[in-house]
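User: I'm putting together notes for a lab meeting next week and I want to include a structural view of one of the chains we've been expressing. I don't have a solved structure, so I'd like a prediction I can at least talk through. The sequence is below, exactly as it appears in our construct file.
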Amino acid sequence: AVRGPFVLIFALVFAMKKDLLMALIFFVVIPAMAIGMVIIFKSAYPFFEELRKRTDGVNSVVQEELTGIRVIKAFNRQTFAEERFGKVNQAYLKTSLEAIRRILRMGPLMNGMICLCMILVLFFGGWGIDQGKMDPGTLIIFISYTGQILMAVMMISMYVINAIYAVASIHRIFEVIDLVPDQKVPLEAVKEVKDGSVVFDHVVF
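Assistant: Thanks for the context. Below is the predicted structure for the 205-residue chain, given as structure tokens.
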């Protein structure tokens, strides 16, 4: 998370010092990558949020059925239990696949932009060498900078993906933490019993 931005910034600075016009390629490609990533993240985030809820649903059903397994067996409700688990599991699977499909769009976007950037660097660098405005060494340096910059962008994007997972999880955690108890303890609640005796009054079957 720290290394990626530093590599990106320093590589851009050195590229601009070496050849400002060639460095403009990065200032076109990188914003395009960033815009694409933001669009993908916005479309994927609701599914990751939903995925956490689906996970809770699966865990809840599994816990209930394992806890009550003796009752399920006693009343011959195995089929019902299996169908119930299968239903929540399929819902989880569907949401999970949709979230993964949306995040996987990141791969073609990143690879496409990397290829586009390399093509532009090679094209304008080759043209500059042909016109005598650039030496081959400078082109090799720019190819190296291109690899460093785009690798840094990919590192940052991976951390952002992890952040999406984390934010969705944090929201689910605080939904539980922030729950208000239904039973409210009165201010003058009895906290100590004098003799500990128990009295049954108007108790009937």
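A couple of points you could mention at the meeting. Residues 19 and 129 are 13 Å apart (CA to CA). The chain is about 80% helix and 0% strand.

User: Perfect, that's what I needed.
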